[in-house]
Specification:
The strands form four sheets. This protein has a four-stranded antiparallel sheet with strand order 1-2-3-4, with no helix packed on it. A four-stranded antiparallel sheet has the order 5-6-7-8, with no helix packed on it. The chain has a four-stranded antiparallel sheet with strand order 9-10-11-12, with no helix packed on it. It is globular and about 45 Å long. The protein folds into two domains: 113 residues, no CATH class; 86 residues, no CATH class. The protein is an all-beta fold. 0% of the residues lie in helices and 49% in strands.
Length: 199
């Protein structure tokens, strides 16, 4: 755990030693602890989602297999402060949304997210109250950056829309953050766009 002034607040703790899929690690704060999600290879699943609770003092809870048996190629945890939502990709490249418990159990069936023609999910997402905003990147010869908004049941409340267009390499690294009623998108050489996510 790192203090606000940038100095280490607690001793470091090892969450996982399996680094093959560590680039998809994500974490959120819910209630009184952080929850960290990442995929690991097991004897029966090459991409098993694992969930670890980390206390405010850096204490690690036991690692649990979330959504047991489901192959999660890439995932992003999202939380409004009292829940856990998961956006993830399947081996076929489909984008899914699902509500899960703090112990990794499914609270609702997975929802297939229609990211729209010419787009794919960028692996970036953030909470917007009980909704979820997902960042999209274009798949065509001319690159694009877009976004969509999902409701608390995973249904689309604001359809995919293009925000910016440029060469594909410009959108190789993207991110999204919340600022008041809007979201701020980041891409390329520190380009920013402020977007109002209306229903």
């Amino acid at each position: 755990m790192i203090a606000a002034d940038g100095r280490s607040l607690t001793p470091p703790a090892t969450i996982t030693t399996d680094t093959a899929l560590a680039s998809w690690l994500s974490a959120v704060f819910v209630g009184d602890a952080f929850y960290v999600a990442f995929s690991v290879a097991t004897a029966t699943n090459p991409a098993q989602l694992r969930l670890v609770r980390v206390g405010l003092g850096g204490e690690l809870g036991p690692a649990v297999d979330a959504l047991p048996g489901l192959r999660v190629e890439a995932s992003k945890l999202v939380s409004g402060g009292n829940d856990l939502r998961l956006m993830y990709s399947t081996p076929s490249g489909a984008t899914m949304w699902q509500s899960i418990s703090l112990t990794g159990a499914a609270l609702a069936p997975p929802v297939l997210v229609d990211v729209g023609a010419g787009f794919t999910w960028s692996f970036a997402a953030l909470p917007f109250g009980s909704d979820t905003v997902g960042l999209l990147v274009g798949t065509g010869a001319m690159g694009a950056l877009g976004a969509l908004r999902l409701g608390d049941d995973g249904s689309i409340v604001a359809p995919p829309r293009a925000i910016a267009r440029a060469y594909p390499w410009v959108f190789a690294s993207v991110d999204v953050a919340r600022r008041g009623p809007d979201v701020v998108l980041l891409w390329g050489t520190l380009r920013l766009a402020r977007v109002t996510m209306e229903n």
